[in-house]
Amino acid sequence: MLVNSLETATFRNIESCHIQFSDAVNIFYGKNGSGKTNLLEAIFVLLLARSPRSAADQIMIRDSADFFRVTGDVEIEGMSHQIAVACQKGGRKRITIDKISVRASELFEKCTAVSTAPDDVELLGGPPAKRREFINIYLSQASQRYIADLSDYNKVLAQKNAFLRQENNLGETPYDDLLIKYGSSIIIARKAFLDEIGRNAAEHYNGISGGQKLSTVYKPSVRIDDGAIEDNFAEKLARYKERERAIQTCLVGPHRDEVEFFIRDFPARSHGSQGEIRTAAISLKLAVFDYLKAIRKVTPILLLDEIFAELDAERVGMLVELFGRFGQIFLTTASEIPLALAGDARKFRIENGAVIQE
Length: 358
What we know:
alpha+beta, Glutathione S-transferase Yfyf (Class Pi), Chain A, domain 2, 43% helix, 23% strand
């Protein structure tokens, strides 16, 4: 797939623009705070109707404006489609493909994109919610069933938590059977996803770092190693029943899952250097790219925000060598553009939200 063009209106600090892209490498460069990251975010919103940095829709509306809108010509399976995503302040988001309204899940079914940014280091050292959000964004692009199960699970979870907050919550919780059904499916899907990208990420990390080791360990809320996940789910819910009533919150299920990463067999969050953690985060996103390309049979759009920051020259060189095996790439940099990229790439200078093609 390809993003051929992007048009924005009152999206963050970006001035209204209409940009035509290269089908290979596109570079946004300029000073920090100029709007480079916002442009990448606009492309991700165009493709998946959500921010890659988990920003609320209303946050992406420019100050003093009442709405944002991003539109673009996107080539999917050789066919050109006009996609538009708009959000009104205080209102709902509207998504259209060829001027026909669609749900966000339909964009996930048609489009695929991978975004990496400096704050991806939180995947390794931040709170567990960051890692669960990472799984949800990218596994949802690979599986419509996962999207449906996750949506149903979150609805049931909200209903159970509302029940637990009631004063007369001493009876049997009427939502556990559904939590087990949807939650077990989610955990099984996450296990398969993390097993696959864990292997690929280790290979990428080994290549970029010059031989170092990265490993990924999934720690689900419910035991799964004995193949009796639903029974284990039910047993743990029973054990935690009184505790859940006391604190009025569901404590068992995939909303409590954790993932841990190890560099050189040590916990990344406590033993990894800045460069090692940044390399590991990039390796994870490249592994996701490989996974989605294999599952979807299409090359994802790759969005790379300040990918060269905090990496030494050798690691930058290793990364640049990898770019030839990817499809369309959008990247930002506040530093000098690597010579290996400068020649063939289409370059855009960003100044205070204005986009100037060179």
